[in-house]
Amino acid sequence: MAENPSDNDYWSANLRIIKVCLVIWALVSFGFGILLRPLLSGIPVGGTDLGFWFAQQGSILVFLALIFFYAWKMNKLDAEHGVEEE
Predict the structure, then answer these.
(1) Quick check: is 60 in a domain?
(2) How many domains does the chain have?
(3) pLDDT on residue 2
(4) Structure pTM?
(5) Is residue 86 part of a domain?
């Protein structure tokens, strides 16, 4: 069965959204929480340093924001391509 060009546009847009979310996820969890922790250790946040905060709570908040961002963007993309849920 031949694919519709609109299907290719939908899936390429979907993959772009996923890639953006994965890059943000990796940057926050691995980058800020582990690699950049020594650089962020001098910045106080809530009684601890920023590096520790990102490793413990900041990552969780960013992950939750990514979930809502992904759901919002996919609902918008679904509506643009006429495949939204009722």
Answers:
(1) yes
(2) 1
(3) 46
(4) 0.79
(5) no
Show the domain range for 28. Answer: 5-81
Q: 41 near 59, Cβ under 8 Å?
A: no
69, part of any domain: yes
Residues 19 and 27 sit within 8 Å (Cβ to Cβ): no
Q: Which two tokens stand for residue 22?
A: 């994965």
Residue numbers of the chain with a pLDDT score lower than 70? 1-3, 5
C-alpha to C-alpha distance for 83 and 26, rounded to whole angstroms: 30
Q: What is the DSSP string of 4-51?
A: PHHHHHHHHHHHHHHHHHHHHHHIIIIIIIIITHHHHTTSEETTEEHH
Type and span of the H or E element at 77: helix 59-81
* Of the candidates 63, 61, 60, 58, the residue with the CA atom closest to the CA atom of residue 25: 63
